[in-house]
What does this fold into?
Amino acid sequence: MAATPELRHPEKARKPDSPLQRKPDWIRVKAPMSEEYQNTRKLMRRLGLNTVCEEAACPNIGECWAQKHATVMILGSVCTRACAFCNVATGRPDRLDPHEPAHVAAAAAELGLKHIVITSVDRDDLEDGGAAHFAETISRIRALTPETTIEVLTPDFLRKPRAIEIVVEAGPDVYNHNLETVPRLYRRVRPGARYFNSLRLLNRVKEINPAMFTKSGIMVGLGETLEEVSQLMDDLRAAEVDFMTIGQYLQPTRKHHHVDRFVPPAEFLQMKKMGQGKGFLLVASSPLTRSSHHAGEDFQKLKAARLAQLGR
It folds into this structure.
């Protein structure tokens, strides 16, 4: 008898199915096939690295990997949370790989990255939530390829004292933490997280280092209203967040949170203009926008926007 395959999302196994809806024309992408994509994939496998591009089933993977850009996911491939939207595997987490920071630096050097995004699973089992591992990864990249700018996309470090300080003191160029959705939907969409804890994290980064760029993103199409998105923007600006991303939620499997609706491109443009009016240095808003999509180009835009704001 064949062994029963291990479930990727055991906590969702008994949930009722939500039908997968047909995507509209404006959100369809081509399957990744380029030689550069295959080479990036081989490099990640050779170095034993995980990428959120693969684990979260990002629709932009073909485009990004063809350009030798990948968002590296550290701290293993298994998350201790069970968010209703996320395709990353959940369960008992992996042991920390002490060689992972060096391997991430090696990948950045081999790909010749000008900008790298480092994210992770949630590690509620670790005393510092994995903050020291983030710091070591930043340090290794700085040592091996100092010209590479670094963006981190961290978990919320809920109930992890000094974790934020550890990461900020390591000196990333951009600190990103996603709110993901409006507070009314947190219990259903992001049950292990707390909205105001995430806001406090972003504000704390600015308290420690006011010059560090901060960034946050949400998905739409989960059932939020435009008024709720507007209030969320106000909350982010009160926390002095510089850059906001807005993208369409795509349902990974029948067991995940359903898509409430596919938001048309015109509404994304409306939200972008609304965010710009509220004072963000940069707003990226489109159906296929994701946290690390075009991150390198966006970092250059952030720097230019700040200089323009300062009149330089």
Summary: Residues 1-5 have pLDDT under 50 and may be disordered. The beta strands are 50-51, 71-74, 78-79, 89-90, 115-120, 149-153, 174-176, 213-220, 243-248, 282-285. The longest strand covers residues 213-220.
